[in-house]
Amino acid sequence: MLRQHPPVDKRESESISKFLSMAPTLESPFDEHSDVVHITASAIVVSDPGRDKVVLHLHKRLNMWLQPGGHFEKGESLVQAGVREALEETGLGVVPFAGDDSFIHVDVHPGPRGHTHLDLRVLLLASETTPSPAEGESPSVAWFSWDEAMAMADAGLRGGLLAAKQTLGLDA
Length: 172
Fold this sequence. Notes:
The protein is α+β, with helices and mostly antiparallel strands. Helix content is 27%, strand content 28%.
């Protein structure tokens, strides 16, 4: 999947190279407890039908506005993990943009507690309703215009937002 994926920017190109070199060395790549490097899943959630807003949450540990995401549960596919994480962290009824082919972006970045996340991102759609995250999740979840989201995003999230816009056929 990654070898054929066209990167949206230089950071994603570098992330693909890092992912392809690190992932094969991991004994349990989806287990956050087996190694400080592991594969994670996250979701770029876009309003539907308007497709003019993106939902972000204020990450509890990192104190940054980010896309919903986290660790895989045993046996989950990428899309299943992205949908579950988005539902838990936003409370929104999300659906994959293109079914099992909803993968749009990869970013390798530092995670909490000294971990490195090999983050695979999927594109999900949701009605622009009021977010209601699950108990224990960050209560700060909101819809933002594309411009607002880009202005507050770190470099990794910016790439994911650009990839989402390209996939949706919006002006990137």
